[in-house]
Amino acid sequence: MSGNTEKPEKEEDSQNKSCQIETETLLDRLHLQGKFQQKLSPADLLQIGPPVKQHHVESEKDLARTFLHRLIMLDYRARYISVRSSCQIKESLKASSSDWDVFVSSSFDTHKKDKVSVHPMDVQMAVFHCSDSFLKQMMITKLSQCQYALPLLVPDPVTMEIECPLWTLREITKTWRENQIKDKSKIVTMKSVPVYKAETPLVSFFRLGSLSVSKSQLMNTLINNRHDTFFHRNCPGSTKSRYLMDGVAEIAWYCPAGKPNDAFNDCIAFCNLHGDALLIEKQRDILIEKSSINIFLVASLQSDEESRSLISSLFKSHKPLICLTVNQNHDPVKTKKGKYIMGLKDKSHSDVSEQLKMIIREVLSSLDGPILKPSFQLETMAELSGIRVDETDPACQRGKSAAIKIINLLTKDNMDVSKIKDEFLPCQGKLWHQWSKIHREMFHLRGNIEMEKSKKEEKLMNIRQKQCAASCSELMEFFTGSLSSLPPTDREYFLKWTQIFIDDLSTDGLSSILKSYDEKWSEVLVLKNKQDKSDLLLKTKTDLEDISKKLQSATFGLEHIFREMGQIYEAHKTTHRESRHTDWSEYPELAAQLMISGHPMELMDGDAGHVPLTWISSLLEEVIKKLGDKRVFVLSVLGLQSSGKSTMLNTMFGLQFAVSAGRCTKGAFMQLLKVSEEMKKDLKFDYVLVVDTEGLRALQVEGNNTLHHDNELATLVVGLGNLTLINIFGENPSDMQDILQIVVQAFMKMKEVKLCPSCVFVHQNVTDVAAAEKNMDGKRRLQEKLDQMAKLAAKEEVFNVGRFSDVIEFDVQKDVKYCAQLWEGSPPMAPPNPGYSESIQEVKNTILSKASRSAGITLSQFKTNIQDLWTALLTESFVFSFKNTLEIAVYRKLEEILAQWRGRFEIKMKEFHEQANRKLDGVIQLKKILDDIIIIIVIIIIIVIIIIIMILLLYIMHIQQKEGRKMKDQKSEFENKLLQKSKELAHKLKDKAKDEKELQRQFSSVWSSWVTELTADIKPVEDINLEQDQLTILQELGFEPALIDESKRSGRYKKISEVGDYSGYMKTSGNLLVDSYNKYKARGAFSHEEQEQIRSLIDQAEEESLGAIKNKPVAATGYTPTYLHEMANHVTEKVQKFLSERKYTLNKEFKVDLLLHVFYRAESWIQESHKKFKLNNDPITYLESKKTQFYTVFRSFCKENSSAVVLG
């Protein structure tokens, strides 16, 4: 008895040892020995390495590495890599036999057995077993994107323990469309669900015994007839011997597209148990239990008793059963409810597939009730006994526990997902947006600059203090605490779990909001077709807009938590405020650790459109502390929204930027990629720093904000990048050309930032393989367009640039690439196009080729570049509000014309006013003549005419002297009232007449209130703001505020007439990247005669302008900005005339400095004249000037001096 039980155990041990030996041999052949214990990690893969072989390898040792790299690049042919050695085909050297004998000999070399090739699925499973959980997850996610089946149950090749790799499936989401009937009409709804949560029917396939028909091939015809979802015996590279696939159960999902030709109307999971199910009992029983339908392939139910017994037991259960007999030929037969049998002999795959689809649809539609229609859910696999789930790993559990605490905080009050950020991440919401807005305004101050600057700095500090007060949230305290306390592996699990749970939370919230949006949008469409519904339509549109804003607020991810860390750090560092709750000073170090380990970090906040410079600088400083000041090659990418930028980077480097259409990248993110040791001999830098950006021309950004935000973002990433990929969807680059025009013009304006950018155009979704050859004319036109807009921008910015490549390095012959379309067919079941992967690999090779000629920059230089470039962008914001350079030129021309029209209009109005005054003087002269006539012919003129003339004279005099009389009357009235008030006060204080200080104090205390009371109804003469008027006039003449501010700050305009050398004012000519002034100096300076001509021009402009302004009646009638307009127009015309007679050109700086100089010289005279006007015409000023005299009168009253002086 005991001997019988020991025998199976010995056989099992023997099988296990044999399996271990085979596994070790396989791993050795694949160069993976040692990796079964010391697992491969994503860090081993995510490096800049040598180009990957596209079609075959020369050694089995390269199979695993090539498979992984091509899989990461979304090339589904990674499964079919062949080994082709360089050896020649053997030739027979037998001299004794004829060629024919050798040819037909059945025994020729039968004793020599060539080594069998490694089975492609053994390569996949060997890599799987030798990878850590994070690389496994990445690998399985890529397999899913390639529309391949995924491991569901995997026997350990050493212990033979069954494992369910649930963790590896956590990042996979399936999207499909299903048809629903609502109100008798068919509605197609979209679903996007993580596969671990998806509840779907499960259809499992089993093979009993050895069969001539491929089960996997049959399953492929059900799921996707054009793609081998499951590897089968007829796939390239297949061999009879495989070591790691028997006992593996793979799963795949059919996702309908919502079209009439869908095989099934709902998402269905298909499971394939590899190997003979009679020998693999544990996996077989698990799948039978979990499945909605079980499908068995057998040779014949009559010949095999073991198969017959198993099918018989299943036939008696309530589970639907489909039996496919390979050696029988008959149509499908339904024996009883849910039980079918069908013969396969002499039938084509397509016929079998169609009949099988029909049976599955019939079975699924007939099942009803929770018992008869079970839904499969991946998460329930963790509940099964007898199998190990990978998530039970202690590190995984510790990370999950920490993440659950975070999610519990977010969900404890059942809060709407759109309100989570406002509640738990307050520093990055309204406060940060307000700070960003005010900070931008700091670079464009007007009026009293110092006072405005002080006010805004105070506002910025107040906001930072509010952020500090709001930063003590439990969420951030626990999140940062976990980051700092958990070991590296636990921390990685923690971040992954947190993202998974947040995505889960966001997806549920977004689904309900999207449903509301869809319903409201349908209402809007219905109302648009109805009459007299304008009010209701307006309300519905408002509701729709509210839902749209809610949709934006509901987008929530790990990047928002990291953004909050940055804002907390900036707030505390700015205010130098300590916090008992958060150790904010450690935040940059925590973020630096993550960045070094491969996590993307936010460079520009996409919601606020601002770069948190303090946070980014501290973060990079910490990276430098940990790595050293390494050299990096900065690669940035730019393109329109949903043009495939992130997908391209993910495919090229194996990164994991967000790529779903519903959750596109916002702002800009940076990620470090290490250069592998074998590539360091070809490259002069240690890392590639990839900068991914949000799509330009996004529909979510409204109005003119789109242009400003996009142009600013584009200039930032092109300026930062050693190389920028200009990503274009299709073959038309028109939108990107507009953006590049703004980028070029911005670079020209920012002379002080030394930049050396270059670019490569990547056209995606080009279907024609001959696109590169056919688009030679398109390339020529692109080059012409880029050069043309560069010249236009140069003209606006007084640069003599001849080509686009003078500003941004670009070779139209080498730097324009065409990529195939991403999908091979129509999603959701389409795999990626292998041609796309090849195209992206070619682009990557181009990038590395260009990078090999560059030394890159150090991390500290990169940090400085960000600071300099962002500061320059904020200073030069004017240019970003336009679509392209042509718009800027037109705008400035319009400004110039309007300024001229306004100046002319104001001059005409002044002339008209002066003519009116002259006519009035003529009328006064007429009065004198009439007086003479009245004296001569007084007897003749009747008394009535005399009265009429007197009335006329009085009226004319009233018009002329109205203001003067009114002022005198007011003065007299005010003096009388003040005299009376002085008497009243003197009477009250007669006892204190001898106390001079007390009298003075009492008088001063009531004087201001007396003046205010008496002049309450009179509008005072306003002070003039010459600085603001000057700025307005200069802007109307087309000069940028930044140029004006820079001239004022330097003060050089005050001494322009004393400058010894005017060469600095000569219009620059040359390359943007060379200091133009030095380049000119190298050729020689202005001659002495030319210097004197310019100095003479300045003196004449000053003298003529001062003479003209001093002829204006400012003291009599007051100041008006028209006077400055006249001066500015006169100086501008004089400069234009001067330059038209010369062979050289003076730049904008000269014109601005000269105008400011003339204004400065006239300023004191205008101020003094206006002061006189104000003294004579402003009652308040007049009374304040008489205060001393009134005090003398008041003191005399107090001393009862009867000779009090009465003011006249």
Automatic annotation (TrEMBL):
Record bears the keyword Repeat: no
Protein name: VLIG-type G domain-containing protein
Subcellular location: Cytoplasm; Nucleus
Single GO molecular function: GTP binding
Residue ranges occupied by any VLIG-type G domain in the UniProt entry: 629-870
Transmembrane portions of the chain: 933-957
Keyword Glycoprotein annotated: no
This protein's GO CC annotations: cytoplasm; nucleus
SUPFAM superfamilies documented for this protein: P-loop containing nucleoside triphosphate hydrolases
Top-rank taxon, per record: Eukaryota
Gene: LOC116312132
Pfam families: URGCP, URGCP_GTPase
Organism: Oreochromis aureus (Israeli tilapia)
Alphabetically ordered keywords of this record: Cytoplasm, GTP-binding, Membrane, Nucleotide-binding, Nucleus, Transmembrane, Transmembrane helix
Entry similarity comment: Belongs to the TRAFAC class dynamin-like GTPase superfamily. Very large inducible GTPase (VLIG) family.
